[in-house]
Design goal:
Helix content is 46%, strand content 14%. The chain contains nine helices and seven strands, in the order βαβαβαβαβααβαααβ. Strands 3-2-1-4-5-6-7 form a seven-stranded parallel sheet, sandwiched between helices. The radius of gyration is 17 Å and the shape is globular.
C-alpha cells in the first residue's frame, strides 16, 4: 500500500494543540506510534486521548521545553526509550506573540528566537543519532509563509525565525544526508487554530478573504503534507519547503482574488 506509516515512530514537538496536534492526529490515523511534547501537562493529557481515539498504535507524552537544550536532550532520550527508537521528527514547537518593531523588547525577541529557532536546532541535533539508526529518518520542520515568503506587521521577530528555519534546513539536510536522513519543511498559510481564533472574528474574516480557495486551512491538511514527507515514497525529497496555504501567496493584488 502507498503511504503506509503503521510502523513509524513519530515525535511532534508542540504537539498538544494547533497545527502540531493536527500533524500528530494525521500520523495517528495512519497507525503510527506518536509522541507529543509540550510545556503544559493538561494539554498533553487531552492530546493523548484524542490521538488514541484517532488510532495511534501507541501514544507517548513528554513535558519539555525545546528552548532549553538540556530539556530537549532529555525529551529525545525519553521518547526513544519509550517508543523503542525514532523514525520521524516533526519540529513544530513555536510561539507567535505580537510586537511591533517600534515597541519590541529584547525579552520578546529572545523568547521567540529561543523557541522557534533554537528549539528547532536543539531538537534536530538531539534526534539525529536515533534517526540515523532508524535507516529511514525524516525531519519535518513547521516553518511559515510569514517571514520565509511574506511579511505581516507585528510579527517581525516571528517572521525572522521562520525564515531562519529554512536556512538551517538546507545545511542540516546536507549534513544529515550521509546518514539517510531527509530534512524538509512545511510552510502553512492561515490555518484555523486556537491561536488564530484568538485574534478575533475580524482578523479571521480578513485572512479568509486573502485565500483564493475561500477558506482557512485545517491543521490536519498541514499534517497530510508532513505525513507524505515521512513516507518511503518521499525518500528522495530533501531540503524542500512546501507551501500549504490555499493559494494565499499567489495574488499580485487583492483584486486578483475572484469572488
Amino acid at each position: 500500500m502507498l503511504f503506509d506509516l503503521a510502523d513509524r515512530r513519530v515525535l511532534v514537538t508542540g504537539g498538544s494543540k494547533g497545527i502540531g496536534l493536527g500533524i500528530a492526529t494525521t500520523f495517528a490515523k495512519a497507525g503510527a506510534a506518536v509522541a507529543v511534547t509540550a510545556r503544559g501537562e493538561a494539554d498533553l493529557a487531552a492530546a493523548a486521548e484524542r490521538l488514541a481515539a484517532a488510532g495511534a498504535s501507541e501514544v507517548v507524552t513528554v513535558a519539555a521545553d525545546v528552548a532549553d537544550r538540556a530539556s530537549t536532550r532529555a525529551m529525545i532520550r525519553e521518547v526513544v526509550e519509550r517508543l523503542g527508537g525514532l523514525d520521524v521528527l516533526c519540529a513544530n514547537a513555536g510561539v507567535f506573540p505580537e510586537a511591533s518593531l517600534a515597541t519590541m523588547t529584547e525579552e520578546q525577541l529572545d523568547d521567540v528566537v529561543a523557541v522557534n529557532l533554537k528549539g528547532t536546532v536543539w531538537s534536530v541535533q538531539a534526534a539525529a543519532p536515533a534517526l540515523a539508526i532508524s535507516g529511514r529518518g525524516r525531519v519535518i520542520i513547521t516553518s511559515s509563509i510569514t517571514g520565509a515568503i511574506t511579511g505581516y506587521p507585528g510579527w517581525a521577530h516571528y517572521g525572522a525565525t521562520k525564515a531562519a528555519q529554512l536556512g538551517f534546513m538546507r545545511t542540516a539536510a546536507l549534513e544529515l544526508a550521509p546518514h539517510g536522513i531527509t530534512v524538509n519543511a512545511v510552510l502553512p498559510g492561515n490555518v484555523l487554530t486556537e491561536g488564530l481564533v484568538g485574534m478575533g472574528e475580524g482578523y479571521l474574516a480578513a485572512m479568509t478573504r486573502a485565500v483564493p480557495l475561500g477558506r482557512l486551512g485545517t491543521p490536519e491538511e498541514v499534517g497530510a503534507t508532513a505525513a507524505f514527507l515521512a513516507t518511503t515514497e518521499a525518500g528522495y525529497l530533501t531540503a524542500q519547503a512546501i507551501v500549504v496555504d490555499g493559494g494565499q501567496i499567489l495574488p499580485e493584488t487583492p483584486e486578483a482574488i475572484l469572488a
